[in-house]
């Protein structure tokens, strides 16, 4: 068997650290997670963590990016299952909000993430999600299905509503009771951008 290249070894080390960080942050939270314990869990040293991520916050950023990217992919799959278009966009938003019920997502992405990494709208994973929303809205606009509004502004606000709904669910004392209220409000607010003439003939029903 051929020996691994340097790049392959480095990627393997990164993956081990991300997996260990993900486990530690989910179980203990960012503040309580020990760098010595999580590097030992991965069979590595603090030096490996510093070399690959700079510090614990850098590792947190990589963990959040991994989870949030997976969340976006899951939401996109829900949108495709719903048939794409406007219904797909609403399904994506609802699916993203619903993932706030998952303990790992709650603690790492929605509770500790903003506290450690700052404004979620600035995260790379959220920017990728924004670009996908922009593409969908452009298609809808080209078909005359939404009002003549700046697409980027609309995409940022729609994504912001879904994200903040998820943050609310995660921070709620009763997340399951909050979830349907959050999704209903998201869909109600989003419906304001629909072309009323198309909506009147049942194009979105």
Automatic annotation (TrEMBL):
Is Repeat one of the keywords?
A: no
**Official protein name in the record:** Transcriptional regulator, TetR family
Example GO molecular function:
DNA binding
- Which regions of the protein are recorded as binding DNA? 34-53
- InterPro entries in the record, alphabetically? Homeodomain-like_sf, HTH_TetR, Rv0078-like_C
UniProt xrefs under PANTHER family: HTH-TYPE TRANSCRIPTIONAL REGULATOR YJDC, TRANSCRIPTIONAL REGULATORY PROTEIN
Alphabetized UniProt keyword annotations:
DNA-binding, Transcription, Transcription regulation
Q: Which residues form the HTH tetR-type domain?
A: 11-71
Q: Which domain of life is it from?
A: Bacteria
What SUPFAM superfamilies does the annotation carry? Homeodomain-like
| Keyword set includes DNA-binding | yes
């Amino acid at each position: 068997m051929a020996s691994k290249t340097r790049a392959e070894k480095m990627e393997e080390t990164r993956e081990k650290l991300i997996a260990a960080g993900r486990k530690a942050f989910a179980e203990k939270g960012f503040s309580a997670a020990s760098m010595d314990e999580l590097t030992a869990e991965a069979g590595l040293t603090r030096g490996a963590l510093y070399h690959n991520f700079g510090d614990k916050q850098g590792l947190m950023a990589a963990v959040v990016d991994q989870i949030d990217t997976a969340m976006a992919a899951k939401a996109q799959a829900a949108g495709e299952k719903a048939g794409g278009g406007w219904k797909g966009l609403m399904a994506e938003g609802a699916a993203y909000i619903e993932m706030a019920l998952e303990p790992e997502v709650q603690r790492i992405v929605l509770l500790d993430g903003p506290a450690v990494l700052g404004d979620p709208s600035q995260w790379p994973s959220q920017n990728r999600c924004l670009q996908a929303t922009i593409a969908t809205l452009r298609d809808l606009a080209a078909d005359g299905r939404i009002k003549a509004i700046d697409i980027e502004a609309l995409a940022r606000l729609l994504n912001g509503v879904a994200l903040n709904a998820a943050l609310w669910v995660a921070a709620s004392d009763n997340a399951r009771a909050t979830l349907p209220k959050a999704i209903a409000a998201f869909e109600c607010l989003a419906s304001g951008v629909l072309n009323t003439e198309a909506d009147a003939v049942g194009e979105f029903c």
